[in-house]
Amino acid sequence: MGIVHFVRGAAAVALAAMAAVPALAQDVRIGYAISRSGPGAPGAQTSQEPNYIMWAEQVNAAGGLNVGGKKRKIELIGYDDRTDAETMLRTYEKLMTSDKVDLILPPWGTGLNFALMPLAQRHGYPMLSPTATGRKLLSLKNPYFFPLLQQPDVMMEALATFLKARGTKTAAVVHVDELFGLEQAAALEKAFKEKGIQIIEKKSYPFGVKDLQPVLRDIKAKEPGAFIALSYPPDTFLITAQSKALAFNPSAFYAAVGTAFPIYRDKMGAATVEGVMGLGTWNPKSGPAAKAYFDAHVARWKKEPDRWASAHCWAGLQILQQAVEKVGLDRKKIRDYIASTEFDTVIGKIRFKNGENVSTPGVVSQWQNGEFEVVWPPERATASSQFPKPGWN
């Protein structure tokens, strides 16, 4: 395996994972740009790059990828995109043209994936994206793009159904003013309208916001039955801390990206986040494959994976490996195989229809006693919900 650079935890300093080793001619070269610095670093270094590295290590320890009946080692080539679209695009252009990598792994976040899609399609590189979601992305009809996360309407429909079943009448919503937040908010409005839940306040805020106390104070005064923050990781921490400081504690408190991170529980305190709901899919109780993945991640990184996109990332790597071992390194054949095959993964079976993961349902998860439990839908639940939410501690 060649040179790999990685960051432990969410730190924004890249470390050399291992010494340079001359790449062998038969190595499978896989390139990517990822946020090791900038506002995307906490998410990228929780949900994606550790999984990229661990997967390559596991495959190489087993002899390599089976390509046409021969085992070939993986050489990872990774760069810091600084959470900057121009840097990210220049990096992938280099990887696809002058570096001539065999395959790519995607960057972090909906916005950067959206920016990369045309370039990946032009050069014919499949993208199995674990941290990008949105109907706008699917509307581009890019045959090389496969988002692994559930779509906004699927996730927000699950939340609306869950809240309706518990008698929720009113809600207040804040969302980050970026593609992710805009699509989630639109899907939420539609789902709440269909379920008869009135949105009594809705506010957007800029990416990188530092203070939301005035907004939260105003929302608290309106006494909504549910509060939903369609947030990115830094905002999720900010909104939780400021809501606690304001003693704003509605019956349902739901935040988005970052809620499923173990560092959210650890930094805020398990007692503080008790009863907080958010975007999630799984936890170690979800099944034997999930437990095996969880244990391997903890053993390798001395930290837990998050309970949403980390497992989707691992599922994407499993799908890529299965495709390569079936059809080789012809990227068009890989694309066609991914588009037409059902795969066994860490989060269950995954099948794509017109690029969308149509197998993984919308899920609501909630922190309870230190674990992000799946509480909806019933067939995936690992615990019953706490409703109303307990008070802040």
Q: What is the overall pLDDT average? A: 93
N-to-C CA distance = 47 Å
Give a count of the beta strands, DSSP E runs of length 2 or more. Answer: 20
| SSE-based structural type | alpha/beta
Q: Main beta sheet: strand number and arrangement?
A: 7 strands, mixed
CATH topology of the largest domain, by name, is Rossmann fold
Within CATH, the superfamily of the largest domain carries the name Response regulator
* Helix share bin: 40-55%
Uncertain segments: 1-25
Radius of gyration: 21 Å
The percentage of residues in β strands lies in 15-25%
- Helical element count? 14
Number of domains: 2
List keywords for this structure.
20 strands, alpha/beta, Rossmann fold, 2 domains, three-stranded parallel sheet, 393 residues, seven-stranded mixed sheet
Describe this structure in words.
The protein is an alpha/beta fold and 393 residues long. The chain folds into 2 domains: 5-147 and 286-357, Response regulator (Rossmann fold, 3-Layer(aba) Sandwich), CATH 3.40.50.2300; 152-281 and 363-380, Response regulator (Rossmann fold). It has helices spanning 41-47, 49-61, 85-96, 110-123, 135-139, 152-165, 179-195, 213-222, 233-245, 262-268, 270-273, 288-301, 309-327, 331-340; strands at 5-6, 15-16, 28-34, 65-67, 70-72, 74-80, 103-104, 127-129, 145-147, 170-176, 198-205, 226-230, 252-255, 277-279, 343-345, 348-350, 352-353, 356-357, 364-368, 371-376. The protein has a 7-stranded mixed β-sheet, with helices on both faces. Strands 6-3-7 form a 3-stranded parallel β-sheet, with helices on both faces. The chain has a two-stranded antiparallel ribbon with strand order 1-2. α3 (85-96) packs parallel to α4, α6 packs parallel to α7 (179-195) and α13 (309-327) crosses α14.
